[in-house]
Design a protein that fits this description.
- With 73 residues, the protein is mainly α.
């Protein structure tokens, strides 16, 4: 039977779409995000520890400099 002008791709030729490109782009983006988080998380933890020590130092230094005086009448 002869083809009647229809352009039908034979079964052995692959048909390329956007699926692989989309998956590869999503994979690249997520890998980049995880890499940046792996670099930023220790820095954020260090900043948090420094902040806690700074606040504790201010709190204890302020209370140690002011002696407690009972109310005098």
């Amino acid at each position: 039977m002869a083809s009647q002008g229809r352009n039908i791709a034979p079964l052995h030729e692959p048909v390329y779409g956007l699926g692989n490109s989309i998956v590869a782009t999503a994979e690249l983006g997520s890998a980049s995000l995880i890499s940046l988080l792996a670099l930023a998380a220790p820095l954020a933890a260090l900043a948090l520890v420094v902040l806690i020590f700074w606040l504790a130092f201010r709190l204890f230094r302020g209370s140690a400099q002011r002696p407690h005086r009972p109310n005098e009448q």
